[in-house]
Each structure stands twice: as structure tokens, then as C-alpha cells.
Amino acid sequence: MQYDVIVIGSGPGGYVAAIRAAQLGNKTAIIEKYSVLGGTCLNVGCIPSKALLDSSEHFHNAAHTFADHGIEISAPKINIEQMINRKSGVVKKMNDGINFLMKKNKITVYNGLGSFVDKSTVNVAKADGTSEQITGKNIIIATGSKPTVLPFIPVDKTRIITSTEALNLKEVPKHLVVIGAGVIGAELGSVYARLGAKVSFVEFADSMIPTMDKTMGKELQKAIKKLGADYYFSHKVTGVVNNGDDVTVTARNSKDEEVQITGDYVLVCIGRRPYTDGLNLEAAGLTTERGKIEVDEHTLQTKVPGIYAIGDVIRGAMLAHKAEEEGVFVAETIAGQKPHINYNLIPGVVYTWPEVASVGKTEEELKAAGKAYKTGSFPFKALGRATASGDTDGLVKVLADKTTDEILGVHIIGARAADMIAEAVVAMEYRASAEDVARMSHSHPTYTEAMKEACLAATENRAIHT
Ligand code: FAD
Ligand code: NAD
Asked: Could you tell me which residue ranges the FAD/NAD(P)-binding domain spans (predicted)?
């Protein structure tokens, strides 16, 4: 079978690329090695983790904040089986949604492992042992990523687990040791801390979510500490041993002392690696560079004409919306259009409570670049809306060019930060100054008033409510 566009991998990069290619009139096929579409994000990533974050947040509120609102209930109990089943139901609904979109756009779905035969032919090896070869004028590689594993951390998927198993536990751990206090650690650590587990974070860097603006990490640490978590920062894990009923993590601290932490489960979340296993890239004339597929910055085309790559398998942030943007970008490039992605304005969100959301440059990046900047901050505790809801933890921090006042970065920790960041993305896309945003009317009472106030603070320190 001959196609205009073949997409390998059905995550947010792949399925979105396929839809856009089909919309543009291409005969399109998508190959997925699993029996369900949606990739990491839908099946073992963004969606199931958010479902569990929401369920655990409800439990936490029922146990700890309802009484304050004058809602009296007897102590809530966790039915972990139901919580996990609900999560699986959410995923299933969305799997069905993607199947519908494939049909609607007349995209042919092949379930099986895709591997290159040559630069325009892909073999699909199916679960029933049969295989089929298809050819494409254009091929988009969207094979995503898998958790990073280290030789001295023997992931056994029962007690020493990755995020995939953490989304399907049959019990709430008594003591969960989380190796890596990055995005997955913060989110899934929060889930189990809210459900009553003792959570210990062992982190190589000196703070949580160390790649984000330092103020965010500091504030998030305080918030998660309130759930009873403890931290081992500047600790490098050197070994993990499953003792049967419990697991011991050994780490070295900054004084080079050995520290041991024992829990009943260990969650390993130390990053993810691009995934190209089984693709047989060599047959297409492709290689990887430190695991990633190299692409041309202007076209996302590999060194082989007609073969493109997008999402987690190439450079850049490993985020679903970044993969989606690249999927649309490549489909439009193939159609001869001249699309554009502003990588500086891909927001990053951590779905803890309070949420953390960032776009643009961090203060540390501006300092390192020697850029003259000014800051404006506004705390949630000074907001009417936050006081009414009881969500007073957090702040908005705006970084603006010292001379021109152009907004260079916005970092928010607080209730609904994930949605609030969209305003900052729009403002920065249109190269707004802090004063531009400060002069726009923001509904009262809303969390977004903190954005306006932080912009007022950045322009001549004229926030009204602090
Ligand atoms: P993937 O989603 O990884 O999809 C790749 C697909 O390709 C997979 O289905 C795989 O089976 C298939 N495949 C691989 N090789 C082959 C082959 N040879 N033949 C056929 N099929 C193949 N990002 C966010 O933006 N927001 C979040 O809230 C968020 N939460 C996350 C939570 C967790 C726990 C995890 C692990 C990740 C999360 N991410 C989140 C990251 C997000 O999931 C990824 O950035 C995103 O899925 C990348 O999309 P992709 O299309 O590049 O690859
Ligand atoms: P991460 O890069 O966010 O965090 C990994 C952490 O592990 C880092 O802080 C690192 O310093 C630490 N670490 C590494 N080696 C260590 C060691 N030997 N000992 C102790 N600490 C060590 O990676 P992640 O949390 O695994 O997430 C993977 C990817 O998935 C991220 O890049 C993220 O983009 C994506 N993701 C996104 C979301 C979201 O957008 N909300 C949610 C989950 C995952």
C-alpha cells in the first residue's frame, strides 16, 4: 500500500500529525505498536496522572479542608481499586475519542511494530505474527520516549517501579521513596502523599523541579512538605535493593556520607530517554545522537529527505503540547506551507496543588545571559479569590526587560496556575510589556488578578494590594 504520509507512533505528536496531514488532503497511515492509540501521554502519562491527581485532591480536601468550609462528614476512606478503575475509564474514553478522529479523517491505522525496510518502506509486524509492508512519500517518526533506567537501580516493576506502575498500584504505599524530585516525582509523589503515604524525595540537585525558576522549587517544597514529605537534596543515589517486603535506597550526600532510606515502594523518575528500539533506523540511512534523532531546525526533516521526526524522540522539552505543535508543523511543511513554532513560548506545567506553570526565561537564565531585567511578584494570599477558596499558597513572578519592559518570563505557583499561564503565553507571543498587561482589565475576583498585580509590581512597583 502506498501513502502520501506514514506516521510511526500514535502519541500526541503522531496522531496530531496524522490528522493535520489528512486535513491537508494526504492519504495518511499511522502505525502503533500497542493495541491502543494515544501514546505515553494518554495511556501512561498526562491523562492517567491527572486523573489520579484529581482523585487524590478530592480525598485530601474531604479529609482536611471540608470541615473548615463547614462541611461535616465522617472520615473518608480510600477505595484504591475504584480510584484506579476510574482512571482507566478516563483513559478508555479518550482512546475511543482518538479512534473516532482516525475514522473521521480517513486515516488508516496499523497496529504493530513499525521498522524501516528502506527510506520509504516500513514493515509492520503485527501481534498475530503476520507482517505487512507499506510505502510512503513522507514518513514521520513519532516514537516518543521511555523512562531512563540506571544499571544500579534494578526496576522490578513491583516494589521498584516507574511512573507506569505507579499509575496502577493496588495499595497505597506506607512509605514511598521517590528518586528524582522532577516533574513526575512532584506529581506522583503528591498523589500518594495526599492518600496518606509517607513520601521521601531523594534528589541529586539542591531543590525540587530544579530546571524551573528557583522560586518555584522553593515554594513547591514548602507546599509538599505540608503533606508530610521529607527531602534528601544534593543526594546522589548509588544503589537500590529489594529486600522482599521493603526496599532500601542508598545515596551519597554532599559531604560524601552514605545515607540509607528504606520504604515499601521506590518510584524511579530520573528523566526519560528517546525511544527508537526496533525502528531499524539504519535501513533508512539514519542514526541517533545520544539517543535522539537529529533534525533540521527549520523543517524538522532528518538527514534523509522525506523522513521527519517530532516529539520526545528529538531535542527539546518532552511535553505533549510541544509534540503536538511539531506534528502540525511537519504536516504543514510537507504540504509546502511555512509554519512556525516559538520554542521559547512552550509553557511548562506541574500539576501539583498548588500548580506550577512557567513560560519564557527563568531568573537564573537571565542572570547567566547577563540580561538586565526587573521582577514583579504578587502573592496569592493578597487575592480576594484565593482567600475565598482557601487556596492562598503561591505567587506570580514576572520578569521583564529592564529597559523596554517587554515580558521575558512568567512563573506562577498557585491555584489554577496551569490555566493562568495561557495569558502570559498570549502576552509574550505579542511581545507585550509588563505595563501592557498591567493596564488590561482582569475580572474580579479571579486568580488572574495576581498576573495584573505582578505586572504592576514590575512597572515602577505599583501593585495595589500589597
Ligand atoms: P509518545 O506519547 O511517547 O508516543 C509514542 C508512541 O509511539 C507510543 O505509543 C509507542 O508505543 C509508539 N511506538 C514507539 N516505537 C514504535 C514503533 N517502532 N512502531 C510503532 N509504534 C511505536 N506532558 C505534558 O505536556 N503534560 C503532562 O501533564 C504530562 N504528564 C506526564 C506524566 C507522566 C507520568 C509521563 C511519563 C509523561 C508526561 N508528559 C506530560 C510527557 C508526555 O507524555 C510526552 O511528552 C508525550 O507523550 C510525547 O509525545 P510523543 O508523541 O512524542 O510520544
Ligand atoms: P525530570 O527531568 O523532570 O526530573 C528528574 C529528576 O531526577 C531531576 O531533578 C534530576 O536531578 C533527578 N536525578 C537524576 N538522576 C538522579 C540520581 N541518580 N539520584 C537522584 N536524583 C536524580 O524527569 P521526570 O520527572 O522523570 O519526567 C520525565 C519527563 O516527562 C520530563 O522531561 C517532563 O517533561 C515529562 N513530564 C511532564 C509532565 C508535565 O508536563 N506535567 C509530567 C510528567 C512528566
From this structure: 3-327
Residue-level pLDDT at 45 = 98
Measured CA to CA, the distance from residue 238 to residue 232 in angstroms comes to 14
SS3 content of the chain, % helix, strand, coil (to 5): 35, 25, 40
Ligand nearest to the CA of 348: 2
pTM of the model: 0.98
Per-residue DSSP letter, 406: B
Q: Which of 7, 36, 42, 46 has most ligand 1 atoms within 8 Å of CB, for mutation?
A: 46
Grid cell listed for 288: 541517533
Single-letter code of the amino acid located at 3:
Y
Q: Is the peptide bond before 354 cis (omega within 30 degrees of 0)?
A: yes
pLDDT tens sequence across 137-172: 999 999 999 999 999 999 999 999 999 999 999 999
Å from CA of 143 to ligand 1 middle: 8
Q: What is the C-alpha separation between 415 and 435, in angstroms, rounded? A: 24
Interacting residues of 96 by C-beta distance below 8 A, sequence separation 6+: none
Q: Among 204, 322, 346, name the best residue to mutate to test ligand 2's pocket (greatest count of ligand atoms within 8 A of Cβ).
A: 204
Distance (Å) from CA 97 to ligand 2 centroid: 29
Q: Is 444 a catalytic residue?
A: yes
The DSSP letter of residue 68 is: G
Distance separating alpha carbons of residues 217 and 181, to the nearest angstrom: 10
pLDDT in tens, 74-114: 999 999 999 999 999 999 999 999 999 999 999 999 999 99
495518511: which residue's cell?
A: 28
Q: Which of 99, 240, 91 is closest to 167 using CA atoms?
A: 91
Strands 265-268 and 160-161, sheet pairing: parallel
Cβ–Cβ < 8 Å for 80, 194: no
Cell numbers at residue 265, please?
A: 515502594
Q: How far is CA 21 from the centre of its chain?
A: 25
Euclidean distance between CA atoms 414 and 381, whole angstroms: 10
> Terminus-to-terminus CA distance in the chain, angstroms?
66
Please name the residue that has the C-alpha cell 524538522. 300
Q: Whose CA is nearest to atom 14 of ligand 2?
A: 270
With a cut of 0.90, is the ipTM above it? yes
* Three cell numbers, residue 281: 533506523
Contact 446, 385 (CB under 8 A): yes
